[in-house]
Amino acid sequence: MATIRDVAKKAGVSVATVSRALNDKGYVHEDTRKLINKAIQELNYKPNEVARSLYKKKSRLIGLLLPDIRNPFFPELARGVEDTMQEHGFRLIIGNADENPAKELDYIHTFKQNNVIGLISATNQTETSYYESLGFPVVFLDRTSRQHPSVYADGLAGGKMAAQEIVKRGSKRITLLKGPMELKTAQDRFKGAIDELCHSNVNFNVMTTASFTFDDAEKTAQELFDKFPETDGVIAGNDLGAAAILHEALRRGISIPDELQIIGYDDIPLSSLLFPPLSTIRQPAYDMGKEAAKLLIAIINNELIEQKNIQLPVTFIDRQTTRKVEDNG
Amino acid sequence: MATIRDVAKKAGVSVATVSRALNDKGYVHEDTRKLINKAIQELNYKPNEVARSLYKKKSRLIGLLLPDIRNPFFPELARGVEDTMQEHGFRLIIGNADENPAKELDYIHTFKQNNVIGLISATNQTETSYYESLGFPVVFLDRTSRQHPSVYADGLAGGKMAAQEIVKRGSKRITLLKGPMELKTAQDRFKGAIDELCHSNVNFNVMTTASFTFDDAEKTAQELFDKFPETDGVIAGNDLGAAAILHEALRRGISIPDELQIIGYDDIPLSSLLFPPLSTIRQPAYDMGKEAAKLLIAIINNELIEQKNIQLPVTFIDRQTTRKVEDNG
DNA sequence: TTGAAAGCGCTACCAT
DNA sequence: ATGGTAGCGCTTTCAA
């Protein structure tokens, strides 16, 4: 591996000059620059980012912490972050916290020890103390926060919307699935839904799901039909949960959406691939990632931030697990 | 951030002694060690990995390069790698190459510039020259290779198995979906299937899918039913593709599995959540990730490797997009 | 058993 | 416009 010394020697200049040429800082004569570039070419020289980072105490690396890489919502988020970071010359290192505080802390250390220049965290932990005095800016993604900059979708509105749409379409005995307690975003959408349901003229009951994983989704689905067989409308905590409900309903020969309506949450790519395609509340995952990246970059560049908590709107995606609305006039 | 100097000062010893204590190298008196540990505690000292890495030219970081983080197969792979690496004290940095050679190369540079100690690559590019003379070991995952160590599932057997099972269950006019040309693993399973089909007594035709993405899967599904309406059995290139076929078939009112049988490939978590649940050839993604991690660690530790190309078996998962087999005697 | 000092590759200050 | 050099935090000889 060629070093800056090798380049300097080959170009017949000092390392200081090479460094200046490399970073476009200070004066470098045009001819000298050409000499240097030639040497760089010939040696296939790439600056050692570790040495750079050691001196500057900042790398070009951004940490991205995901709670569960297996939930399709998060890769989508990650892509939004990645694409934006790429454009701005930052590189992403992704950590998967696995809904596990110990792993989360571990990754935060790794990020810190490797001099990341900033961190985007999409984990669910309430333990915000991990993020204090890290020495680099943090943006929370898919999570609200007062103290830290954050990007999230409007969960209250989303929950309300889900309830409105399913009621409007005629469900009378609704089961509302409540996501994990510790997940603030899940609680928001739950709260939005329950508010709306309380103000409407329908019966409903509430079931709590332990987590947003495949396994728990399947368990919850089974339980739902055993406990509340008269349900004619389900508002799920996320699309994975909705997919499991849909699956179980079809298995039991329940006709969708005639006997049972289902509304999911997230609009993960899989949702349109289900049959019938899933009606859901769409969170703009990719855009959320993009916004978080832009926000972090702005902070890194010390731009003044007009809005450090960005809330993105959600939309109802009217597919085929809900009936066509009757009134339209 | 406390440095090793601070610790040394506080403990009243030299930095060299602290370093020795830190790394369990050379002699350190028990009393001195206690003093040092106390200082480390009080200062909440964490060694700077960047400085370490600069000197040793090796970090504790492992690069993992994924072709497409949105395809659920890869997060599964990643989890296998991650869990094993975690156990051994290595940290993972994940890059998403997005099926894009430029991004792939870019990540390889990032890994190199950040002194990763090893790399696991699950990308599809045939461009193996990127991986020459990197200065650290590389293990290919979900990809065969002669020159480099690799871990993959038996695609030939998988394709053959898919064909056998669907023929055994009575499909007579089969459409075989062929994955992207540049994807060696896809070609293997295709080859396995077509070999078997040629030796059997059924008609079949072949359709090529552009890529293994959600969008292309949907397009291919539409096309299939337009072009080959008489198809009574589909062997898909992967589960995403199979899900799209299933979706389109149900949309057109085709009864599954009575009129049409479908076999997928991968067994991603979503497959059992579809309705009817998808019959598929299972690749042990998590285990593949684990094996790749173990192999890389062995190479890093200079252990002698008895087997540098590890092939894992695939299995047929008999769910409900295939009929029950008739003969069983 | 311990410490002084060199050096990993780079940047930035200060001379020239 | 260019170069010498200190120093980022750590590990590792080598000497004591």
From TrEMBL, chains A, B:
It comes from the Bacteria. Residues 2-56 form the HTH lacI-type domain. Keywords: DNA-binding, Repressor, Transcription, Transcription regulation. One of its GO terms (molecular function) is transcription cis-regulatory region binding. InterPro entries: HTH_LacI, Lambda_DNA-bd_dom_sf, Peripla_BP/Lac1_sug-bd_dom, Peripla_BP_I. Transmembrane segments: none annotated. Pfam families: LacI, Peripla_BP_1. PANTHER family: LACI-RELATED TRANSCRIPTIONAL REPRESSOR, RIBOSE OPERON REPRESSOR. This is LacI family DNA-binding transcriptional regulator.
